[in-house]
Amino acid sequence: MTKYIFHGGCVQPESINNNSFYSELVKDVPYDGMVILVYFASRTDDISDRIAYDIEQCQKFSMGKSINFEVANLDNFMELAKEADTIFFRGGSTEKLLNTLSQFPDLKSVFENKNKTVAGSSAGAYVLSTFYSSHYEDKVEPGLGIVPVRVVTHYESEKMPPRPGAINELKKNCQNLQLITLREGEWLSVIQ
After folding, report:
1. How many CB atoms lie within 10 A of CB 109?
2. Domain locations in the chain?
3. CATH number of the structural domain 3-191
């Protein structure tokens, strides 16, 4: 089974919710296991601060386990994803992340039934979902459909709220899919 973790955005700064998120992220990584950090959604080229923060937080909650960290790029992503125990898609531009990941049509099969943890924060959560709420228009957007859920991140945020009309559309459509509504820092895991 694969554990998918949906995070509502803003993994920084430290908080009780964010601490428990990082703890859950590395909980099932075996000793000398591998965590892949994916920053394809980043809006800036310099991701060094994000890398340092994510590694520091993962190590902090690793219960003393030795963990290997790799930062994915377009050339090594699929090979790393196949081998990884945990894959973390950090937030940023959902459109950029969707466009990048659409280059890998077999991605869902790499995650399914592999005893992996696959996590996404904000844009990362959106791409894992079947549908998500737009932050720019009053409409529902399609994710990659890795997990059959509907997702809203940054719910009730003062800085980055999704459009109210988009949330209403998401609630009305595809009601057979679980609706996950997350405020910044909140997270939820789904086992498949």
Report:
1. 10
2. 3-191
3. 3.40.50.880
